[in-house]
Amino acid sequence: QLVCIFVGQLVSMYVCNYVGQLVCVYVGQLVCFYVGLYVCRSVFMLVCIYVGQLVCLYLCQYVCLYLCQYECQLVCQYVCQYECQYVCQYECQLVCNYVGQLVSLFVSMYVGQYVCNYVGQLVCFYVVCMQIKHLTKFGEDRIERGHLIRADRQTD
């Protein structure tokens, strides 16, 4: 099965090819191709996530490090210039993606139901199960009504 989640306006010539299970996410003018071994190209920002065997390392122009590793459990660590650290860990299936825009609640279907909440700079997609841990230097994270909520502390 293939799930494509689009943030922002859809690129007219967007192509999404896959073998097995693949999730393509793009912000702005981004294109993701999956041909045997995955190849990721981006104009603005792009994160390619593979549900199953996954090894994904992405360093974006905003000096943000996005590291994903898959070992029995999928563990996603996201560290960025906002001095916040997020650790998302689930026992079942998990897809974590980074986007740079605030987007309203989005619900999709994928091996059950994704409940996606875009807040600030972090997006977590979770399927069925919800076991989550958050570590933040600034900001407060919590699970509310099954959604990930992040409220940044206001500073003058």
UniProtKB/TrEMBL annotation:
It comes from the Eukaryota. Keywords: Membrane, Transmembrane, Transmembrane helix. The chain crosses the membrane at residues 18-37, 44-67. This is Uncharacterized protein. It comes from Dreissena polymorpha (Zebra mussel).
